[in-house]
Amino acid sequence: MPFELDTSLTDALGATSARTLERAFGMKTVGQLLGHYPRRYADPGELTPIRELPIGETVTIVAEVLSSSVRRMRNRPGAMLEVVIGDGVGRMTLTFFAKGPGQAEWRQKELSVGRRGIFSGKVGMFKDTVQFAHPEYELFDDIDAAQRQADARRNVPIPIYPATSAIQSWQIAKLIAAVLDALGEVPEPLPEPLRIAEGLLTARDALERIHRPRERNDIDPAVRTLRMHEALTLQAALLQQREQVRALTATPRTAERGGLLERFDASLPFRLTEDQRQVGAEIAADLAADRPMNRLVQGEVGSGKTLVALRAMLQVAQSGGQAALIAPTEVLAGQHLRSITKMLGPDLAPQLMPTLLTGQMTAPERRKAALRVASGQALIVIGTHALLSEKTTFADLALVVVDEQHRFGVEQREALRAKGTAPHALVLTATPIPRTVAMTVFGDLDTSVIRTMPSGRAGIQSFTAPLAEHPWWFQRVWARAAEEIEGGRQVFAVCAAIDTSKESVDADGAAPPPDAEGKGPRWGVVQLDEILATHPVLSTMRRAVLHGKMPADQKDAVMRAFARGEIDLLIATTVIEVGVDVPNASTMVIMEADRFGVSQLHQLRGRVGRGEHPGLCLLVTEAEAGSLARERVDAVAATLDGFALAEVDLELRGEGDVLGAAQSGARSSLRLLRVVKDAGLIVRAREIAAGILADDPSLERHPALRATIDRRVTDADRAALGKN
Fold it and tell me: pTM of the predicted model, to two decimals?
């Protein structure tokens, strides 16, 4: 009986192979195995550059045997075979240990000079020579020699698969070949007329060609077909998810004449920007509808997203509905409480009773806050993950606001929404998202953009301080900071770690980019504070430190003191990355700026220049000119346009890291799709998916597409896609 994509690997390959594949890759079905695509292809005549092998990684290479020798072990029984392989430029050694000379000589005969094959193992170094210890290998003329020789003459590509120490690339190839030989018909996700119109292969042919290409020209059409399948599957799933939310019935929340929102707008001492008015109108229309809003608002750092969110909160509060704003950190939650209370003013704040609820509050404080929330007395609730607790209940949760979406997942957003009856959802991000990324990651949300900045801000100048070329600039950076403080302004200094003197460096926030230079951060908050304590001017200034491991009340006290102007220089980790609003802060010094991503640097820079004083951002780095890490820092210094930086970030990071955690978290659904290179394909896939769903919302007439969605886009995948 032919295999289907849902056939279990145990039935297809036997219990032993199935168990190995599940342990190595989490695979359980034939479809999952066939979705394990080659990471590259080797030609039988191709010799891999040995000099480029990364030490410590498990790799697969194509090479030729150059020499071999057997010697007895001195201090224990047995023998060792050393085989030298090369690529015409570099050489490396294969080391095999045997119980006796006979076993070693047998392998030496097998690995005779001139034989060529695939070798796989962990790259090591011994006496300045690159080596594999006891590698796995397959010689090209071992299995089906006549076929191999014919393939070599035609230069048939050899697929190289992502592998582990438990199962090698060629072993995976054999298992896939066995499955393909017994595979029956493969359902087509696209209707036949569309498949032909798009110039795509059949699903069965695409799988055959990507795993067993007969020539190089077979590969690209197969990859394009399977990428379209991925894009279509994902876009259809996201559009279905959006329609499922829209199908729910929500309580319309309209803004009344003379109501809370109108009173608030009348009290503002400034005019809303054009973008704030436009986005506010879109949100107001969503809230007045009888289906839940599901909207993403992208806005530049300091563009007034919080104000837009507050106006939405007031609109739902008019009818007694509660709004919950979830923030990623205690510092940011506390900042939101203070800024929202201040914006509401003495007239509206007592009526709406903004209430903070976080995990680090004392038990009596938390009980008091929870009672206000459960009774409906607090119409605006601000908190961290504590809002997701089972103990947190609402009287009438009408609006969920998620601040800094990239810090949360879909499942957390939905967990908060579950505390109300189909509440509206507003998702905020100050991390600009290029269109195709937004379409891929946030495809279930309607999108609004705030580009214009409020008037009255003096702006920011940014400079790279390249210590590799100008080490004396280190002193100039702090002299400049001292000048700002002497002028009555305040300064942030940000480090990538808390304390670098410990064996395990205390870090705060996201991991550094892969190209961050050096083994670890040199500057921690502790080290910078110690060195500035010896500075002739800054040592006399009011300094304080702030990081994520401090108790919540201590962090809050420091931030309040800084906001009141009682601290001149705040030395912090990235806990101040988002939402902190101190108009008198004019200068941001970022130590080892190359250890931060583009969006992080842009966010940190946005903490200054928020008032009447011009902002200054100094990006201190020891990264060499021309390095990728330095390019990233220089790119941030060159522009204040976050949307332009988002595009630069994609170019600098390349295809493999575009979705970051989302891609690694959704590997079963995104294998080949690249949101930069495949932008046009993603747009087309969304058009096709929208057309199919408009005519057949439940996909009853498209069972193959429905089955593909069920098979490849799990709830966990959708959750992971929300974490970027």
Answer: 0.64
